[in-house]
Specification:
two-stranded antiparallel sheet, 7 strands, alpha+beta, 5-stranded antiparallel β-sheet, elongated
Length: 157
């Protein structure tokens, strides 16, 4: 039987390669998780941004202005039980209009929703009458578009 000897220089070179492969595997798992989980969130965030832009382009009724400190927009599971995405744009307004006139205005205007449907705003008035010194009051108008495909966006499951 013939035994062959391995050169002593070959062994250390093979042992030094394992950190490279560990780093490569770690990088591949980070890229894969980004593609699977983060990219769908970016897509839904983009849809929400476009909806917010369309809502923001609506003309305001007379004697009304935006309260930019209290605006919000959210994407996620906001209604129902699971596996769909809901989109909500929340406008805060300061107005001197009567409640009925404001409600009538936002029921009459429509905005294109996420998948092209028409959305109208829902007006919420503070029942305690949040009146300011100049006769204006704080009002919330929400545009809600729900029940869309969730995909891999974990916020919608």
């Amino acid at each position: 039987m013939v035994l062959t000897e391995t050169a002593s220089e070959a062994l250390p070179k093979q042992r030094r390669r394992w950190p490279f492969f560990v780093c490569l595997a770690l990088l591949a798992s980070i890229v894969a998780s980004t593609l699977v989980f983060v990219v769908p969130q970016w897509r839904n965030d983009e849809k929400l941004a476009r909806l917010h832009e369309r809502v923001s382009m609506l003309s305001l009724p007379p004697d009304t202005e935006h309260d930019l400190r209290a605006e919000a927009r959210v994407v996620g599971l906001l209604s129902g039980n699971s596996n769909h995405c809901d989109y909500l744009v929340h406008l805060a307004l300061i107005t001197k209009l009567p409640d009925a006139e404001l409600v009538r205005y936002y029921k009459s205007v429509t905005v294109e929703g996420i998948e092209g449907g028409a959305l109208s705003g829902t007006v919420y008035v503070n029942p305690s009458g949040s009146w300011r010194g100049d006769g204006s009051k704080d009002v919330i108008v929400e545009f809600f578009d729900g029940g869309h495909e969730a995909g891999s966006d974990m916020r919608c499951h």
